[in-house]
Amino acid sequence: MTIEGVQPPIDGTQPEIEVVQQTLESLGWTAALADANAVHAANGHRPARVVAEDRGSYQVIGQAGEQRASVTGRFRHETSDPAEFPAVGDWVAVETSPAGDTTIHAVLPRRSALIRQAAGRRTVAQVVGANLDIVFVVASLNGDLNLRRLERYIAVAWESGAQPIVLLSKADLADDTGPIVADVEGVAAGATVLIVSSFDGRGVDEVRALIGPGRTAAFVGSSGVGKSTLLNRLAGEERATVNEIREADARGRHTTTRRQIHRLPEGGLVLDTPGMRELALWDGQGLEQSFGDLDELAAGCRFSDCAHGAEPDCAVQAAIADGTVPADRLAAWRKLQKETRHHERQVDVLARNEERRRWKAISKSVGKHMAAKYGPDRWS
Ligand SMILES: Nc1nc2c(ncn2[C@@H]2O[C@H](COP(=O)(O)OP(=O)(O)OP(=O)(O)O)[C@@H](O)[C@H]2O)c(=O)[nH]1
Ligand SMILES: [Mg+2]
Ligand SMILES: [Zn+2]
Fold first, then answer.
1. Which residue of 154, 245, 320, 357 has the smallest Cβ count within 10 Å?
2. Which CATH architecture has domain 113-272?
């Protein structure tokens, strides 16, 4: 399935400049990206967004419509870190040769990135999605709701720099959602929890409004929770294949097999992902980057081992009381610390050091995003 709505000009000429701007903006283009792109524009490269990837072949979309693209030999040669290769959601600088081959010269800085530890024995960072505004963590209300797993998903979503929102799906199958919602809110670390049903339509308009024109949202969660069904409902047509879950244990069948960004009629963008059982956070370095404001504040607490609870003269609690720090950020920080401690026991030190360098580059752009969101003094 491909993205619709952006067509190349019929006669092959360049579309008018306003039309180009509007198209890029509807794909999530921002002034900050335009700044970062200036050096590439000077080289005659055009911006495009990666909407799908297939073993090194990228599907990109930009003012020239949709194209297949691959990275230049030079890019491949100079990039040793898999996390620096283009990922779905990335903005890239492309060039099309007279023969019609499109190549990617550079990846523009990411303002957010959903990163997980890739499956397999080696500890490798995998960018699930880049430049996301919202990460919808989807869990089904029909029985198989695992709070610990959900908690980890939410922690990784917080870490991405995007806004995490929990979607409890298949509400039409649940009688009394009250107790479950309370449990989920307990592990949501301040993320909003919404109840949806793609069958009776409950919550669908809220989700649509949250995504909004020019914004990008990802659906993540276990197989079979209804991510693709919700995408189809939002799109008003069948964009992605959907399959029955297994009767015996309510598990999904891993129907969606690759990540792909779809465009909604209203102009929002949805990244549908294959079901992932685990979304593991692999390193604590990101914590310092994303929660640097709390670290700094904590230095001002009376006790060096302050847990920022009921201790006297706690600078973190003071900041929450005067409104400089939202209370949910403290909750999110705690959850992430817990998750990281758990995880650090599992990864070998060598791999962690390697990841640390990778993570720095990525989280730098996340930090910039946070600065824009929460103010530069606490994030720079
Ligand atoms: N009752 C009910 N069933 C739903 C709802 N949404 C999805 N389903 C069903 O759940 C099953 C799995 O849906 P999918 O959309 O394929 O799930 P997915 O999360 O995309 O799964 P993967 O692609 O494997 O990760 C299908 O049989 C859907 O019809 C809902 O709101 N209510
Ligand atoms: Mg699916
Ligand atoms: Zn404190």
1. 357
2. 3-Layer(aba) Sandwich (3.40)
